What does this fold into?
Amino acid sequence: MRRTLLITGASGYLGRVLAARAVAAGYQVIGTFWNAPQPIPGVRWERLDVRDPAAVLQLVAGHAPHAIIHTALREPNDWAVNADGAAHVALAARAAEARLIHLSSDAIFSGRPTPYTEADPPDPITPYGAAKAAAETAVRAIDPAALIVRTSLIIGAEPYKHVRFVLDLLEGRRNEVLFTDEIRCPIWVDDLAAALLELVASEHSGTLHVAGADAVSRYELGVLIARRYGYDPARLAAGTAAAHGLRRPGEVRLAIERAQALLRTPLRGARAFLSEQPQPSTTSTSAER
It folds into this structure.
């Protein structure tokens, strides 16, 4: 009997990759969307507003999934989706006795020179980070058996979001700088999706950092993207968030030793996965929650 996996936000970037991989792995996949479903063979699509607790309960009860991966979000600042929505999904998962994996973010941290472990308490300094931190608190309180997966910048072969931003700079559509004082641990979207599916089949609970092995600045990430796509990195301008008077998380390095010990999936660093030659993408770049 095929096991049913419900993916919220399955029409988003990570959600699309995750849904396609789950179908290939033999899951019966239910994907939720807000604006429009995506052309992924084998996915049954359901429109869902995670802000509506009754709708979430009804959908989960109707499909009785054995597991839920909650990826739905809205940036930069939608508390009702990012915080309340996570609580609604957790309540529905608990009622249906479904395994819940909740996607969180390194945005819950303010930044420091030393890596953050799973035991470090959130100290967000942005509204988005505060919402994601609140979501973690709600999920833990409602469903102690759930697994909270914190990740970082998501990069993939498709020129989406972070990659698109850099390409826009290189091609003259934007005129901004890339910060050297913001450090993250980008992860390849396929590595993250594979890790999540591996974790669905596990019994791990609590919190787990699943990010890339390399800590790189926004500027270094831009240079790596430029080289991957055949552009001259000299076209990119470097600067600092501090010089621009911005209050944003600085150095946010996620310690991934626990995940590396638990997972078979390799968590490659940006220097490794961005050195590969890009392949043509056939997927849509629309953003969904």
